[in-house]
Specification:
With 303 residues, the protein is mainly alpha-helical. It folds into 2 domains: 139 residues, Serine Threonine Protein Phosphatase 5, Tetratricopeptide repeat; 120 residues, Serine Threonine Protein Phosphatase 5, Tetratricopeptide repeat. Helices cover 75% and strands 0% of the residues. It contains 17 helices and no strands. The chain is elongated and about 70 Å long. 42% of the residues are buried.
Length: 303
């Protein structure tokens, strides 16, 4: 057996690590990934992507074993080798969350959503972190966040082509669409218009579907987020509405519709302070906004 182990290549060690991981043998997986990393680094081959994947895989094993500190270290190394690596960001976010480092976790979850909006784990993570940070820091929790990096379009396009970004056929379809450039933007506008038609008909669920498809093509269109937030409000999906407004404000920090609709959602969720803060932001930019004035009066009367 020792002779066989010595003869194994880094790829064979990696595959053995993968098999151990799938079998729930996380400690052995860490050992095998470590050997694979050592072999590849000693080989002198400049295979940054392969090394990045190995570090990310070992991070997943550490995370499963409850070793969050080592998981974070490996994810950070992986991200240095593969900037904005999808899996490493998610794994580091989970580790940060487990260590109650909620601000860092929020930043990583939000960064993942820039790469691919249709990731439930990232949406759920953002929602959990938003609640945790609101409980800790109050309505001004966003002011204490570390900077959220902007994922360049060139990085999105290159990541969209990577197999590691496609854990399911649905997500693969989404990322493939992002490679179309101007064609994707054109398709996004057409889907957005279809969503607008459904809104006029009062068919908000169908509108949400169209807006989601549109954002899959072009995740940088602010009005699509605020339009979908309006639909979520009608469907009483208030957390989802807040999430869309957050994203709209990340793209356009002065967007009045995003502030107003987030205030509406916060009102329904009984988040009085956050709703007042958002409405004050609206009135600061548009003092004569009657709808915001009326809603502010209603919120101020809440117990």
């Amino acid at each position: 057996m020792p002779q066989k182990r010595r003869s194994q290549s880094w790829t064979e060690l990696k595959q053995a690590g993968n098999e151990c991981f799938r079998a729930g043998q996380y400690g052995e997986a860490v050992n095998l990934y470590s050997q694979s990393i050592q072999l590849l680094e000693k080989s002198g081959q400049k295979k940054k992507e392969d090394l990045g994947i190995l570090y990310s895989n070992r991070a997943a094993s550490y995370l499963k074993d409850g070793n969050c500190s080592e998981c974070i270290k490996d994810c950070t190394t992986s991200l240095e080798l593969i900037p904005f690596g999808f899996k490493a960001l998610l794994r580091r976010a989970s580790a940060y969350e487990a260590l109650e480092r909620y601000r860092q976790a929020y930043v990583d979850y939000k960064t993942v959503l820039q790469i691919d909006w249709n990731i439930p784990a990232a949406h759920d993570g953002v929602n959990r972190m938003t609640k945790a940070l609101t409980d800790i820091d109050g309505p001004s929790w966003r002011e204490k966040l570390p900077p959220i990096p902007t994922v360049p379009m060139s990085v999105k396009e290159s990541l969209a082509q990577a197999a590691s970004l496609a854990p399911s056929p649905q997500q693969n379809s989404t990322t493939d669409n992002k490679k179309k450039g101007p064609e994707a933007v054109k398709k996004a506008k057409a889907l957005k218009e279809e969503g607008n038609v459904f809104v006029k008909k009062g068919e908000h669920k169908k509108a949400v579907e169209k807006y989601t498809q549109s954002l899959g093509q072009d995740p940088t269109e602010v009005t699509t987020y605020t339009n979908r937030a309006l639909c979520y409000l009608s469907l009483k999906m208030y957390k989802e509405a807040i999430n869309d407004c957050d994203e709209a404000l990340r793209l356009d920090s002065a967007n009045i519709k995003a502030f107003y609709r987030r205030a509406q959602a916060n009102k329904e969720l009984k988040n009085k302070k956050s709703a007042i803060e958002d409405l004050n932001s609206v009135l600061k930019k548009d003092p004569n906004n009657m709808a915001a004035q009326k809603l502010l009066q209603e919120v101020q009367k809440m117990k």
